[in-house]
Design brief:
The chain is built from 14 helices and 13 strands. It is α/β, with parallel strands linked by helices. Helix 14 links the parallel strand 11 (396-399) and strand 12 (418-420). It starts with a helix and ends with a strand.
Length: 438
């Protein structure tokens, strides 16, 4: 059974099923499809499936033509029919793993997907979880669910974990170029998963177990979270001392060893860094272990939206204005530049805070024409044009995302108050008296 599946993988005859057509699943669809595999994309969102069937992408950095060409070639079939899982040789799970309101892992999508595979899958399949989660998830959730209908892992079916490493909108690191960590439930599982990714990814990094692979992903993001928290805290101190933290970072970056630059901002966003560290923090409690760095960095990073609002209020107060009743134009609401990804964006927290304090809020973001309803917020706001009238009507312009293509110096020239959280004014702010860094 193992050799038959390996042969199908290496000859590209294996049918690939990918569950979750989002920022992780769609790039995998394209990578496997371009490599000659037939890929079926599963999603419970009927609107997404309908869009994909027409060859239309709903993610800005994924061109529609990449999908439509695969559909025309018969290499990509989107569906919401999970009974088709039985036809797959490989099933890759790319579903969300959010946090609950109490910052505990919310694995409802992983559990539901595991049950769907158990119900509609079959023996002989290779099943790989890519969703970020705590060490032990693959063994504790998927293995029991799949062992009941399929039999012995490593013999009757194959199970592995390989963490996603997507960086949306980063042209330097496509799916093909990012090394793939793979941990199998057994040596046979690892061998098959490594063989699969080896056909489409330049470098595969096998590790001894799913737990090691799961922990690896968390370490990567905890490393970033803690270092971003450090520089965010130092930003607050530097502002109080009258020192430009951006200039400090630039100077420190000239050291050729022992220093890696991280940059402050209005808070953490995206599907990984604000969430993943708390998966390990939650799991650590089962071992009577307190992850103090994780907790502290979380506290610092989640406090940044409030700090940004306080800096905005300081700037307005200096102009004898209160935040209540003031018109605030927000520039950029995506969690990072040049993407349409709003997941966990600190801009949403800041906009909510502004509304609660009585401000009038509008925004401009060329990538997000309408703010969709999220788990926490429903603002019903549309992006406004970035023209002279819009800028002059605002009591303050608040830069939260530094999208390319915007002439920030021109905006600052027209602004009553220009609040910069992303260092877009580094080349000209010394010539202005209306700029506040936050």
């Amino acid at each position: 059974m193992k050799q038959k599946l390996k042969d199908a993988i290496q000859t590209h005859g294996a049918k690939i099923g990918i569950i979750g057509m989002g920022y992780v699943g769609l790039p995998l669809v394209i990578r496997f499809g371009r490599s000659g595999y037939r890929v079926t994309g599963f999603d419970i969102d009927k609107e997404k499936v309908a869009s994909l069937k027409k060859g239309r992408s709903y993610i800005a950095h994924i061109p529609s033509e990449d999908l439509s060409s695969l559909i025309d070639e018969g290499r990509f079939s989107p569906t919401d029919d999970y009974e088709l899982l039985r036809e797959m040789d490989v099933v890759i799970i790319c579903v969300p793993t959010p946090l609950t309101k109490t910052q505990e892992p919310d694995l409802r999508y992983v559990r539901a997907t595991s049950r769907q595979i158990a119900q509609h899958g079959r023996k002989g399949q290779l099943i790989i979880l890519e969703s970020t989660t705590y060490p032990g998830t693959t063994r504790e959730i998927l293995l029991p669910d799949l062992s009941k209908p399929f039999g012995e892992v490593g013999k009757d079916f194959f199970l592995a974990y390989s963490p996603e490493r997507e960086d949306p909108g980063n042209p330097d690191f496509s799916t093909e170029k990012i090394p793939k960590v793979v941990g199998g439930m057994t040596p046979a599982c690892r061998e098959l998963a490594a063989a699969l990714y080896g056909e489409v990814i330049r470098k595969v990094v096998p590790v001894s177990s799913p737990e090691v692979a799961e922990f690896t992903k968390l370490l990567e993001n905890i490393y970033r979270s803690i270092n971003i928290a450090l520089v965010n805290e130092l930003k607050v101190l530097a502002n109080r001392m009258g020192i430009d933290i951006w200039e400090v970072i630039q100077a420190a970056s000239t050291k050729p060893f022992g220093f890696h630059p991280f940059y402050p901002g209005p808070g953490l966003g995206g599907h990984c860094i604000p969430i993943d560290p708390f998966y390990l923090s939650w799991k650590a409690k089962q071992y009577d272990f307190a992850t103090r760095f994780i907790q502290l960095s979380g506290e610092i990073n989640t406090s940044m939206p409030r700090y940004v609002v306080s800096r905005l209020m300081d700037g307005l107060n200096e102009r004898e204005k209160s935040l209540k009743g003031s018109s605030i134009l927000v520039l950029g609401i995506a969690y990072k530049k040049n993407v349409d990804d709003l997941r966990e964006s600190p801009a949403l927290d800041i906009i909510d805070n502004l509304f609660k304090r009585g401000a009038q809020v509008s925004y401009h973001d060329p990538y997000i024409p309408v703010i969709p309803k999220t788990r926490k917020y429903a603002f019903s706001l549309r992006s406004v044009p970035l023209d002279e009238a819009t800028i002059r009507e605002a009591d303050a312009v608040l830069v939260l995302t530094d999208h390319d293509g915007i002439d920030y110096e021109w905006v600052a020239t027209l602004s009553s108050l220009f609040v910069d959280t992303r260092n877009v004014s580094f080349s000209f702010r010394n010539r202005f008296d209306n700029i506040v860094t936050a």
